[in-house]
User: Fold these one by one.
Assistant:
Number 1:
Amino acid sequence: MEIFSTVCPRNCYSTCSLKVRVENGKVIGIYPHPDNLATPEGPCIKGLSYVERANSPDRIKYPLMRSSEGNFKRINWDTAIELIADKLTKIKQQYGVHAVMYFAASGMSGMLNSVSSEFWRMFGGATTTYGNLCWPAGLEAARLTLGANKHNAPWDLENAKLIVLWGKNPAETNIQEMIPIEKSLEKGGKLVVIDPRRTPSAERALYLAQIRLGTDGALALGICRELIRNGWVDKEFIDNNIIGFEQFCERTEAYTTERVAAICGLPEKAISQLSELMGNTKPMTLIPGFGMQRFSNGGQTIRCLLAISAITGNIGKPGANWHYANLQSYVFDSIKEPQSYYPGNEAPCFRRKVSMARLGEDMLGLTNPEIKMIWVERGNPLTQNPDIQKTREAFRKLEFRVVVDQFMTDTALEADLILPAKNMFEQSDIIGSYWNPYIQLKQKIVEPPAEVKPETEIYYLLANRLGMNSDEIEKNIPKPNDMAIEAFLLKHLGRFPELSLEKLKLGPQLANSHQEIAFSDMLFPTPSGKIELYSEQARQYWNVDPLPDYVPLTPDAKYPLQLMSPNSKNRIHSQFGNLKIIKQFETEALLFIHPKDAANRNIPDHETVLLFNDRGSNEVKVQFDFGLRKGCVVLSNGHWALEGATPNFYSKGRETDMGHGTAFHDTWVEIKKQKP
Ligand SMILES: Nc1nc2c(c(=O)[nH]1)N[C@H]1C(S)=C(S)[C@@H](COP(=O)(O)OP(=O)(O)OC[C@H]3O[C@@H](n4cnc5c(=O)[nH]c(N)nc54)[C@H](O)[C@@H]3O)O[C@H]1N2
Ligand SMILES: Nc1nc2c(c(=O)[nH]1)N[C@H]1C(S)=C(S)[C@@H](COP(=O)(O)OP(=O)(O)OC[C@H]3O[C@@H](n4cnc5c(=O)[nH]c(N)nc54)[C@H](O)[C@@H]3O)O[C@H]1N2
Ligand SMILES: [Mo]
């Protein structure tokens, strides 16, 4: 029996450090790792379920080929590599490299993921994606305003006297954050939640504002107007650190309490009370979530919220900061940052790209050459990308589809060839985080089962089979052995000479450059060197108003209910839901609805209804929720299309106003009884 230190590599704020017990080459126990000050109490139920997941009989363990009857048949690696090499060569010769599409998403993070892009670059290029399903509207909004995305260390939250959870639900999506929130409350701090749902995060809140979806920009501008009118702003901080304050004051004038109340569907008193709290309780930490920026107006909304933190001087101090994303240890996956999509910043061989948000539509629209083949890894686009019917249509038009995954997902089921993917215990990698500040080693602690191979090895075999230049292979793709992987990791750690693999094997490490209190030096790397409430770049790059602005959504008159699809407690997107332990907590997909909205349609609780709009229709069971704002319904994302329940049957392929994010929540639907 041995205990190893490692880290959860899922796309999740917490990025928990873990201790893992291994016996006879099997993972048999998961425990807390006390050295991580941000995640001292151990992981969530998903983290604990790794014992089942790692040893699951449902794992794909061999290359699988679709037979002419449509079933999958086991083939050996030689045949699989030969087949892929043959397809790649023929398609490249006949149509050119851009007829091949490389698609990767966020199923597994780590530094080694860059090997995949290197392979496709060495191939001569490929069509790939730009943008992101997750957080880029907010990232870009904060980058335009503050110049960088970073926040105080998670444990600093206990120093806040006021915490505002604005469209974030950490009790489910970042459970470790609830620890410093509780500590702040114990010390007399106050918690405010702004969310159309009464989430578990709101249980201890002093105030819950159940705002109308997509109207947060107006609320923030209304609050700013009150702050300015009452003199509850930090004059000295503004004079020293902000540009555009005068113009911003003018912008807020139209957002009277009365008007904002009507736009947001809140009582007028709520706006004055929130303003008074935010203007007079210091220090304040404002925590905007990622859910709120999944709208066509998401980026500008986030800029409106950030103005509250800025004009009250709640930036760069203990207990006071803008807590969106902390990229201080997030140094390895630059592909996710919006700047990498700016014209001129991309590698020329990848210049042909399709929007992550409009995947299906864009793939179908490409000509000269049309896409003939796709390679999918670390992603499940037929569950997680919007407008699944379109994406499916685009997939089905292709000649050849390769999917690398651990399980038989919606996307794997559409493949011609499935390659088995390693899991987090089967290959070492370096993991950053977007919340906790540590750099961590995800250690290889067991051998991959049966014929599972990590992507780096698959690419190594393919590169050799394709006869790529051996010096290039040597330089860019680590050989398939543990020493070569460690050497690769060490080489790429180069900019952190203070970190060694030996140190990282013991547990999480902080880089020397880590700033516990972000922006405490008052250095803002914007063009002006100040906080830019007025941003010329906002206009230049995204053609939006240079000032923060509220832009109303355009509802769909045919479908009166707005569909929200937040993240769920017991899954990470489309992962974990297939495990027995998770099924105990979530037996089936449920559509949450306010009882009044249901009564208006004569629908009783627990009834199976038809959920529909122009893009799709499916049966789903309703669950009454008195804590939900009327006019919206909730179906969490990550349910498999196979089970008929993914919200992405209904979402449109639409980008956010900045950052090339995905406007999942600009979705309207209707429900009706199956049997009238
Ligand atoms: N358990 C679990 N944890 C996760 C994940 C997971 O899938 N499961 N995923 C990880 C990832 S990749 C992400 S992006 C994060 C996201 O986690 P969060 O930042 O918490 O984002 P969401 O769950 O999308 O939405 C958060 C809240 O926003 C609210 N909301 C929706 N629309 C609006 C609006 O118009 N105004 C306001 N004020 N609120 C609104 C929703 O009701 C929801 O409660 O979680 C990470 N952590
Ligand atoms: N309607 C709606 N849709 C949403 C959202 C929403 O709020 N509403 N949220 C969006 C957000 S925030 C995100 S981040 C995305 C997430 O969507 P995706 O990025 O697609 O992430 P996951 O579903 O977590 O994982 C994708 C796949 O990666 C596989 N995988 C895990 N590890 C490995 C590995 O090492 N190698 C390989 N090859 N595969 C591996 C998993 O088995 C899984 O099938 O979903 C988005 N979709
Ligand atoms: Mo995400």
Number 2:
Amino acid sequence: MPIHVVRPSMPPLDEYIEEIRPVFENRILTNMGPVYMKLREQLIRYLGAEELSLFVNGHMALESAILALGLKDEGEKRGCGEIITTPFTFVSTAHAIVRTGLRPVFCDIDRSDYCIDPDRIEELITPRTVAVMPVHVYGNICDVSRIESIAEKHGLKVIYDGAHAFGEKYMGRGVGCFGDATVFSFHATKVFNSVEGGAVSFRDRSLYVPLRELKNFGIRYGETVESVGGNAKLDEFRAAMGICNLRHIDSSIAARKAACERYHERLDGVSGIVLTRPRRGVEANYAYFPVYFDRALFGRTVDDVFAALRENGIGSRRYFHPAVNDLDCYREFAGAETPVARDVSQNILCLPLYEGLEADDVDRICDVILSPGK
Ligand SMILES: *Cc1c(COP(=O)(O)O)cnc(C)c1O
């Protein structure tokens, strides 16, 4: 039996049918209908967020958060404003910055948590800097207090890409409470999915209307067009999938946790293998199981391990490889070298992790990794 790198969580079919039955009666298919509103309320409670706006995916939520905070207006001309971010992320983070007319400035990461290195942020700040966009990589929570004190000192906004951090708490607070906004992804492959979907959580209530307009053609309360918006609404069918998956999220995370613990039992202390643990104070969601291979000590490269796993019917993912600033389409934004991000991106592999991955599966995966092959 092949083992895939991810397998989306799905509710029992009957549960989904019950959830969409009202949609077949009222024929409200989209446009922030009752199922959308119900999911929003439930997520506000689950995430411990103050305010939440749902989107068709995490990427459009990121773009909309940037625009809703008015960051585009800060520069003198289009493309002028800069956002300091990490190159060790999914391309969506940087794409959102470029596609909203701003410039990404890549800051190196901290080797201990793979998140943006707070010690390197200030040297990148220029008069054009408008915001910092850190990523809670693999569900490791960034050093939010240092990042936010730097941002405050320099008058910068902070938007967290929390696509990996669904449901996590840090120091007892939902991760969506930090910064000016936090963006979540509900893509099929994430800890919580609504097939496709996403959200922006925020504290400043005045962002509610701009976010709503950005995802619905700039229309205010179904009547007048007040601004230039796109279309990024979460429809009722996806919202219903979200409601069903949210019902099972705690057991889903518990199953991920058990798989991670098994990985740790097998891989902790192996020479040449570096594993991460969540920062102290993080209530983790066990989103990913990244393994850094030190090729000198381990004797084999990430490519060797990837190939050996594949020969045994096991998927894994070089996530994130390459670093965003090593992509050809980012050449014009490459800026200063980010050696830690490059090294980590070249030597890290995410192992299979999903609800339903059993201890036996983890053993099979670890047997391949630990067998002295090539
Ligand atoms: C998945 C992901 C996104 C994009 O979310 P979508 O819902 O797929 O659009 C953005 N940033 C990171 C770090 C992600 O992992």
Number 3:
Amino acid sequence: MVAATKAVSVEHVRTAVRAGVRIVGENRLQEAMPKIDVLGPCDGLEWHFIGSLQRRKVKNVLGRFRMIHSVDSLELAQEIDRRAAEAGMRQPVLLEVNIAGESTKSGFPPSTIIQAARAMDELIHMEVQGLMVVPPPAKDAESSRPYFRRVRDLAREIEKQDFRHIRMDELSMGMSQDFEIAIEEGATLIRIGTALFGSRPH
Ligand SMILES: *Cc1c(COP(=O)(O)O)cnc(C)c1O
């Protein structure tokens, strides 16, 4: 479980960590940095970047986050690879899938992801470990099931390619409203905010 802590104070994050949370997911670098400075990386606490990432922020994200869930373009991937090479590291990432082709959402459409993955297979300082999805807004959790299933099938399809470096070990899918369905459909990472911390101020 990734505790999604946007708009959650460092004190509340600390309480969650004391209660057993081991992975913290932040959406914005600006908000995450002071929390990381105060809390970790202590006691094996992992920080994941789950929000949309601008290319110019990549250099500050590297080294701070164990996993970036939200690689949504080849250009972003190339920047991560370039910066990771400079830093002498390999950055684990997930590819964000725009599973319903929503124009308001970022992520790779399923129709282009294999081609993009082929290009990313050459980027040896970035390690693709799986897929991430935020399905379209839904009234009930069950409506998300077909999207989770399609993401899982897409991961299996990518696994069948002859990629050398790309792995599909992780599926980051499911939030407070629909994590149980996501787990049934193969999620390995669920991102939980409201169910842990209550609703966020708007
Ligand atoms: C906020 C957020 C979550 C958590 O959503 P909840 O519905 O509060 O559980 C998960 N993933 C991402 C990318 C988020 O921005």
Number 4:
Amino acid sequence: MNKLILLALAGTVLLGATLLLVNHKRVSNDVPITEEVIKQWKQYKLTYNKKFSDPDQEVYRMEVFAQNLEVVKNDTTGTFGVTQFFDLTPQEFASTYLTLKVENAEEAVHDAESNTDINWVTAGKVTGVKNQGQCGSCWAFSTTGALESALILAGQATNSLDLSEQQLVDCSSSYGNQGCNGGLMDSAFKYIKVSQLTTEGNYPYHAKDQKCSQASIKAPLYGLKGFTDVAKTTSALQTALLKQPIAIAVDATNWSYYTGGVFSNCKTQLNHGVLLVGVVNGNWLVKNSWGTSWGEKGYITLQAGNTCGLANSASFPTE
Ligand SMILES: *[C@@H]1O[C@H](CO)[C@@H](O)[C@H](O)[C@H]1NC(C)=O
Ligand SMILES: *[C@@H]1O[C@H](CO)[C@@H](O)[C@H](O)[C@H]1NC(C)=O
């Protein structure tokens, strides 16, 4: 059945015909696969280099895509658009990417009148945006990002420093981390304090769980003195940020739709680890680990306040 539909779709496109059965075909949740959807789907596949060898799979993924397009259509905030995650259902997205293992933290108090602008990216103290791939290792990227910045600010490294997330994924399970199934920045800081962390060059990222390779953990090694949990207020977060970038936990449930602008369409169920790197025009600037084609070249701007719960579970390493 689905194969026939796909053939019909392909035929429609090839012949340039306008009114075949596709316009009338209703899919799950009653989202129609219109010519416009097909056009955007083709563009999506090109943009993100998505390939589907199984036609049934492709039809199903196009239906999911159509449902995600409906969410964008209904958006009134102007921050939603098509992203690389549009062939995933919200449930699939959450199970792969929203894996931070944080106990639901007490809600932070929003007590800052206004934020003071600071931008660690333009100051040259933030390393490049990375991509965690299909592995729930956000916590490892938040950790390396925070440590890389702390080392640069302490004069112990340049901003070409690239620390190993894979070492954290593979080797920090005795501190409570679960590799690609999730983890916590503070647990990673505890591990690094004892074991130190090597570079990406020595221990490269493969976006999957592996056995810990002790042989790869070799010089140059970077450590930390300790780490500090930021008090649960937006003013304390601002004060901490004026010294260095901060590892934060957020509710990223709707981030799969984010393409730019000041975002606030979220609650505070913490499920993702990222790096707070600045305040721009009073709003928070955050570095993510979903590559540079996501959001604002890999970054997201969060509205001032405790948006997405960003002040509920913040911490930073000390050198
Ligand atoms: C979009 O809005 C319409 C009209 O309010 C509503 O019926 C529909 O369920 C919404 N769709 C999504 C995916 O939010
Ligand atoms: C995600 O965005 C939708 C659509 O704007 C909104 O209705 C919903 O409350 C948001 N969900 C969360 C968890 O923030």
